[in-house]
Design goal:
Number of domains: 1
CATH topology: Ribosomal Protein S5, domain 2
Distance between the termini: 35 Å
CATH class: Alpha Beta
Number of helices: 4
Length: about 140
RNA sequence: CCUGUUGUACGGGUGGUCGCUCGCGGGCGAGCUUUACUCGCCGGCGGGAGGAAAGUCCGGUCUCCAUAGGGCAGCAUGCCGGCUAACGGCCGGGGGGGUUCGCUCAAAGCGGAUUUCACGGAAAGUGCCACAGAAAAUAUACCGCCGGGGAUUCGUGUGAAAGCUCGACAUUCUCGGUAAGGGUGAAAAGGUGCGGUAAGAGCGCACCGCGGGCGGAGCGAUCCGCCUGGCAGGGUAAACCCCAUGCGGAGCAAGACCAAAUAGGGGAGGAGGGGCGGCCCGCUCCGUUCGACUCCCGGGUAGGUUGCUAGAGCUUGGCAGCAAUGCCUCGCCCAGAGGAAUGAUCGCCGCCUUUCGGGGUACAGAAACCGGCUUACAGUCCAGCAGGCCCA
RNA sequence: GGGCCGGUACCUCAGCGCAUAGAGGGGCCGAUUACUAAUCGGCUUGUUCUGGGUUGGAAUCCCAGCCGGUCCG
C-alpha cells in the first residue's frame, strides 16, 4: 500500500484548520477532545437515553439529542460501557477505538448535538475501515448545515 | 545437546501522524489602580499501568466514632524458635506419615534422599461409630476350653434281681474357673517369644511399645541415658466442646472545608433519643417550659476543593546472620484520574507459524496506600533437579 | 468498598456423614387410536462445578479456586 491510510474521509476536514501543516501520511490534524466537549453528568446521560434519537450499527449504538445552546461549545460526546460487555481491557479498547474514529470527524457535527455511544462487542476486533464507515453514517445524520 | 520440572529475572524494540491527562516554566489577553492572585488562548519541555494493577483470602497504615474502656457473646489462629509495623505470611529447627535407595537371607530396625502434614487437648464432660461381628466402649452375656457334681446310653466288676462300684471316644443338665481362641470389621482392650497352668491369663521373664521418676544436651519443640510400674486402656474435636493467644466498630462513598439550597413550612405521635455496631455496663451529646426524636404531606440541594500520593519507597556498595531479615551508606523521585487519562493509527525490525498469499505476538487496565497469599499467562535469560542421546 | 447465596440427570429441584444419589417434567420404546393429542406400561441419563484435605467412609464437614446470582453504601 503506497498511501495506506484514509482513502476517502480525510482531505476536506483538514481545510478547516489553516494552521495545521499537512503531513504526507497524516490523519486530520488539530481536533482536540478536551473535557468541555464530553458529557459528564448523569442527568445529561439520562436525558440522551430517554429523549434522544436512536442510531444503531454493528459496532455501537448511539443516542443523539438536539440541545439548544447559546455558546458554541458543542457538540458533546459521552460513552457508556456496561460491565456485562466484558473485562476492563475489552471495555477500554472498544471505547477508545470508537472515540478515536469519531474524534477526527467531530468538527463536521453540528454543535447542538449530545451524542451517547454504547459500544458493542464487534468494536473490539472490527477493522478500522468498518468503524470509519459506521461513523460516516452517524455523522451524516448530525451534519452541520 | 534435547525434554520435563522447580525457583529466579524479564515480559517486545524503534520511528511518523493525530490526541488525552498531570506538572514545570514562557508569551498574549481579561478581571484589579499596581504588585500578588485568578481565568482564557497559544505554542515548548518533562512524567504517565502491572507482575500479577486481578481475585478480595489475610495483615497493617490512615480517618471518624470516647484517649477505644469492662463483661458476655462471636470470630480467627494452634509443634518450637526467629523475622516483621503486623499476619493465617516468610525463614530455620523438631516430630509424624508416604515413596525410594543402601545395610540385612528376610522381617524388624538403622541410615540417606525426596515429598507431605490445620502437628494444642480424647485420663474435664457430652454426642456419634452404618454393615458385619460373640462383643463397638460399662467390658461381658454367648460359643469354645478346663474342673466339680448329676442324668441318659454303652462297657466293666459284683449280685438271683433291683441296685451299687469303676470307666467312656458319646449326648445332656448344672455349679465354678478362664479371657488364650471365635469366620467379622477401618478399629477388638498392649505385641512377639519362652516359661507356667486343670485350662488359661503381664501370672512370671526377655525384647519392643506405653505411663511415672531422675539425670544429661538444647532458649525451646524435642532427643539421649538410667531407674521404676505389669499397663493406665479404641477412634472421631475439619462433631459439640475445653485450654491458650489475638481481635472494639466501620471504612477514602472514611473524613475535612467551601459554595448552593432555607422556612427551622403544614399535620400526627411524643419522653426519651443519638453517637453505638449482637447484647449489657460505662462514657458522651441533645431533650422533657422555648418539644429532642419518629412518621406523613410539600419543597430544595445532590457542585467544587481537599484527603491524593516521598513511601514499612526504589537503588549502589558494605557489614551482621545458615536464612527470612536487619543496620550503615551512595544516588534517585517513579501515574494521580474522577462518566474515570495513560490511547488510536500507519511503517520498519525481532519472535512463532505457513498451504509462501499470509496469519499470529500471552494473561491482563491503577481508583487512598503498603506487606503477603492465591489464581491467570505467549515467549525469553540464568540456576538446581530428573530423564534421554552423543563424544572422550 | 463491603455483605449474602447458589453450582446435583437435557430442564426445575430434593437430599444436612454410612443410598445402587432420587422426584417431576423432557426424551425413547410399546399399548390404545383410522391418525394425532390425552392416558397407561416400561426404559433412558450423572466426573454430585474443579483440586486438595479430615474420616474406616464425603453430594454432605474443612480449605483453596472457578463460574453465576443478589443486596447495601
Amino acid at each position: 500500500m503506497a498511501a495506506p491510510c484514509l482513502p476517502g474521509a480525510e482531505p476536506r476536514a483538514a481545510t478547516s484548520s489553516p494552521l495545521a501543516t499537512r503531513e504526507p501520511f497524516g490523519t486530520p490534524t488539530n481536533f482536540g477532545f478536551p473535557k468541555s466537549v464530553r458529557i459528564l453528568r448523569t442527568s445529561d446521560f439520562r436525558k440522551a437515553y430517554n429523549e434522544g434519537k436512536r442510531f444503531t450499527g454493528r459496532c455501537f449504538a448511539a443516542f443523539c439529542l438536539r440541545v439548544p445552546r447559546e455558546s458554541d461549545d458543542g457538540p458533546r460526546l459521552g460513552f457508556t460501557v456496561p460491565r456485562a460487555f466484558g473485562r476492563a481491557v475489552l471495555r477500554n479498547r472498544a471505547k477508545r477505538r470508537i472515540r478515536e474514529a469519531l474524534r477526527v470527524r467531530l468538527p463536521e457535527v453540528a454543535p447542538e448535538w449530545d451524542i451517547v455511544i454504547n459500544p458493542r462487542r464487534p468494536a473490539i476486533a472490527a477493522p478500522v475501515e468498518e468503524l470509519r464507515r459506521e461513523v460516516d453514517r452517524l455523522v451524516a445524520q448530525c451534519r452541520k448545515q
